[in-house]
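Quick one, tokens below:
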């Protein structure tokens, strides 16, 4: 009989945990936004300083269960994209390769390599306003339009973006761009993630775990509490 009671209590506890987890997890969420040279959201140099230059993004927690799915699309009029850098969290809990899953591109084989580190002005990042810890996607294929996607266990916050191609002999400038909100001494907005852009920033991965991790914490915490209340642990 004791075994049956324990099983019943276990089922009840699990049901309570799942219900609580539903509150923590919430409904599927999708955020999208865009910036362009035309609307002043992108600062561009060289031949990328053109109204047709645009950056758009979509972030959701439903494409890949338990993780956030990030998608960034960059369109430039000329001069193929050499690389793009998406800001990621730094500090006590920095974003590393272990936080990035299933990277892909709309053009098969476009991604040549991925590096996550600190990047600063100069060298291969001309016109970058200041240092940025970011995810760098290097191109293996020439293209003026590409979408890069990846999954992460980090939730979205507001951050910065940078991209560049080669030297333009027409106007003696590099073709490069970054979001206009990326400035010297820039403090990224601390507001909650939302559709659109905030102060010319975009959504990037942060230090906070994704819904799947929060779900497990909610289940674990609630289940433990339920079992303790019933004297089972």
């Amino acid at each position: 009989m004791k075994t049956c009671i324990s099983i019943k209590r276990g089922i009840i506890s699990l049901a309570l945990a799942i219900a609580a987890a539903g509150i923590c997890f919430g409904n599927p969420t999708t955020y999208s936004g865009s910036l362009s040279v035309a609307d002043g959201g992108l600062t561009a140099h060289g031949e990328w300083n053109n109204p047709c230059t645009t950056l758009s993004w979509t972030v959701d927690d439903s494409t890949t269960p338990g993780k956030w799915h990030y998608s960034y699309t960059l369109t430039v009029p000329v001069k193929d994209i050499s690389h793009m850098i998406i800001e990621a969290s730094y500090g006590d809990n920095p974003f590393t390769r272990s936080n990035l899953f299933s990277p892909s591109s709309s053009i098969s084989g476009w991604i040549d390599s991925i590096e996550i580190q600190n990047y600063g002005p100069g060298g291969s990042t001309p016109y970058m306003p200041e240092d940025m810890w970011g995810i760098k996607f290097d191109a293996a294929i020439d293209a003026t339009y590409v979408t890069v996607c990846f999954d992460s266990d980090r939730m979205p916050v507001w951050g910065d973006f940078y991209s560049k191609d080669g030297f333009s002999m027409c106007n003696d400038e590099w073709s490069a761009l970054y979001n206009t909100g990326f400035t010297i001494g820039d403090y990224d907005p601390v507001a909650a993630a939302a559709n659109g852009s905030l102060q010319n920033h975009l959504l990037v991965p942060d230090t906070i775990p994704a819904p799947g991790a929060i779900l497990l914490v909610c289940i674990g915490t609630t289940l433990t509490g339920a079992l303790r209340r019933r004297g089972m642990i």
